[in-house]
Amino acid sequence: MTSLRLNVLELGLACCALEYHAAAVSENLQQQWQALVSDAGDAGDAGDTGDTGDTGEQAGAWDVLVLAGTMTHALVPTIVSAYESLGQRRAVVSFGACSISGGPYWDSYSVASVPPVPVDVSIPGCPPTPAALLRGLRDLQQTLALRACRAAAPDSVAGHHA
């Protein structure tokens, strides 16, 4: 199965960040969490190392940037920089209404209501539950596995749609 290495960019609001961390430490979800997330660094951090080097790529894992919270225009350069610092095998998860579309703050002058980087999986909710995060990460694994299959297929097959 595709291995995921999470790099979380918490964007200042507590709701989604709390649910993200609840998923990482929940005893009920711990086995599922560990099956999804490779531990690229500190074992006590459940894969959330903050290290954005290419070690995940070298190990065959995908670096995953999790956007959780409200994205302001002032944070856009930080988000783009975090995304660009990931390895070649990278994906983005938008976790919660605020990071997907601005949430209840969508019409604020300071809120960027559209993520400034390509998003592979969006997990809706205000805030989403820890179980929703795990479902979203499983969906991401399937998406990345399908992407790898398509990339490995010959051009004549990869371009053909049934």
Give a brief outline of the structure.
This protein is an alpha/beta fold.
Number of DSSP strand runs: 4
Count of alpha and pi helical runs: 7
The secondary-structure element order is: EHHHEHEHEHH
Strand order of the largest sheet: 1-2-3-4
Strand percent estimate? 5-15%
The span between the termini is 26 Å
Q: What can be said about the biggest beta sheet?
A: 4 strands, parallel
Kindly provide the radius of gyration, computed on alpha-carbon positions and rounded to a whole number of angstroms: 16 Å
**Mind telling me the CATH class?**
Alpha Beta
- In the CATH hierarchy, the architecture is 3-Layer(aba) Sandwich
Q: What class would the helix/strand composition place it in?
A: alpha/beta
How many domain units?
1
Per the CATH scheme, the topology name is Rossmann fold
Mean pLDDT: 77
Secondary structure layout plus pairing:
Layout: E1 4-10, H1 14-25, H2 30-36, H3 55-58, E2 62-68, H4 76-84, E3 90-95, H5 97-101, E4 121-123, H6 130-152, H7 155-158
Parallel strand pairs: 1-2, 2-3, 3-4
Describe the protein.
With 162 residues, this protein is of the alpha/beta class. The chain has one domain: Rossmann fold (3-Layer(aba) Sandwich), CATH 3.40.50.12280. The chain is built from seven helices and four strands; from the N terminus they run E-H-H-H-E-H-E-H-E-H-H. Strands 1-2-3-4 form a four-stranded parallel β-sheet, sandwiched between helices. Helix 1 crosses helix 6. The longest helix is centred in the last third of the chain and has 23 residues.
